[in-house]
Please model this.
Amino acid sequence: MATVKIPKRMSSALLNSLGAGVVPRVGLEYVAVGRKQEISALLQDFENMAGGGAAFRFVIGRYGSGKSFLLQLIRNHAMDRDFVVADADLSPERRLAGTDGHGRATYRQLLRNLSTKTRPDGGALAPILERWISGIETQVAKDTGLRPADEQFADAVEKKITEVIGNMQGLVHGFDFAIVVSAYWRGYRQDNEDLKNAALRWLRGEFNTKTEAREASLGVRIIIDDESWHDYVKLMAGFVSSLGYKGLLVLIDEAVNLYKITNTVSRQNNYEKLLAMFNDTMQGKAEHLGFVVAGTPQFLEDSNRGLYSYEALRSRLAESRFAREGLQDTTGPVLRLQTLIPEEIFVLLTRLIEVHAVHYGYQPSMTTAQVQEFIQEVHSRLGAEALITPREIVRDFMSVLNLLHQNPNLSFSGLIHGADFKPTASSRDPDVDENEKLAEFSL
Model:
């Protein structure tokens, strides 16, 4: 019997996700291989953030190369190290800038997915605020000797809260942020769920108009909008670090959707916003904050529509002339995902066998030679090895494991060498032009 130990709930989510070509949220550590350099670089960023610094990284790789997998793996590493994590996928409706709520939609997604080690599935904003209030109450009781039942206790707590949030008021939008946080405390003290919920809605960017904000009795006349949402991310990073968390890590996936914006002005506005976020982080205007943005090589390098079309970004992100295949400076802002080597693919598939066997309760019988035979068959049927991504291999291998388990009389060789076996076609970037496709397939 395989020796790996994994909870049934976790193995179920892991196998279902990988079989569908979706990156799982849990259990990634059981099948993660390679990426040691990239993970080491990002973990170094965590140390810098914990010390009050900031970090900004672009993770670049083609479709199916493992960008989303790496982001989820780093997400779990960050929560284990007591960071607060927020993640969002960009889409036509969620961008970095816009005039129709596109930027605020991204912010709302980030706040909905706000997660901690004790709340790994999102929705951590309210627990974070409760932790903040509880910590202040504990500190007041320790400093004054008062108890929660004493008449003076609430006044002492409110005084302490005013003192704490006063430190935020000198920051951009810090005054309004502090007022809303204080309103949440009032709702907590008065057992007023409506006021607490209104404060949470405001902090999550869910008010659509300033009139709504005024009517909520929060004491503010503005709302989080497309222009200001990044300032509130910086405020949230400072706030959670003041509560004892190491900082805030923001993960943004599917950044290729910015590349796909057809309107040139709109696309450039998004790149300008990205530049402002990058500069704030790299110039020390943010503390305890890290960004990881994932996208394709076209999103980065296309001189007509990619980040390189925006000169200020190109000059900051262009690769060193001394870098080459297999040799990259991992302290730079761009981390390029290299293709997994055959040995790493082999280890990955071996781990999948173990997890699959434990989940379904059988003794694995697939041999080392058969795993290698599968890899060779996929390569021979799909063409150049460089065009095959981990996502495609994993999906096909999960299908093979499932079919063999469900059909005990089926032979491994008969399955993978059968005329009907058609490996998943390579995941292609739909925005790559035909000349580039022909050049790649001529390798």
In short: Residues 353 and 365 are 9 Å apart (CA to CA). The chain has three domains: 1-30+341-443, 31-121+227-336, 125-211. Residues 125-211 form one domain. The radius of gyration is 25 Å.
